[in-house]
Write a structure and sequence with these properties.
The relative contact order is 0.21. The protein is 36% helix and 30% strand. The protein is globular. It has helices spanning 13-20, 24-38, 86-97, and strands at 2-5, 45-47, 52-57, 63-70, 73-80. β3 and β4 (63-70) form a beta hairpin. A 5-stranded mixed beta sheet has the order 1-5-4-3-2, sandwiched between helices. It holds the Pfam family Gp49. It comes from Marinospirillum celere.
Length: 98
């Protein structure tokens, strides 16, 4: 699979959030999971709705990577770390897809 990242108004939300994470262990686990996803092994993930998927990473606060599939491409949409804002985060990501 080919990994791409969503660009919104010249910004890359996934990269912006990843750069803000201070926990080096969490960053390493997130990157490792992205590599597994790229090789076709998503591990702990869930199909949500409208072609949106959630990759669950159990480290620190419990990170989530939201992504979608377009042919042979996986498009990373967002990286979030709070279960409290999950509903709002999913709505935001879905608005980017439409």
């Amino acid at each position: 699979m080919i990994i791409k990242k969503l660009v919104v108004e010249g910004r890359v939300p996934f990269d912006e959030r990843l750069k803000k994470i201070k926990d080096a262990r969490a960053v390493a686990r997130i990157i490792a999971r992205i590599r597994r996803l790229e090789s076709g092994n998503p591990g702990d993930h869930k199909a949500l709705s409208d072609g949106l998927y959630e990759l669950r990473i159990d480290v620190g606060t419990g990170w989530r990577v939201y992504y979608t599939k377009r042919g042979d491409q996986l498009i990373l949409l967002a990286l979030v770390g709070s279960k409290k804002t999950q509903t709002k985060d999913i709505k935001q990501v879905l608005s980017w897809l439409n």
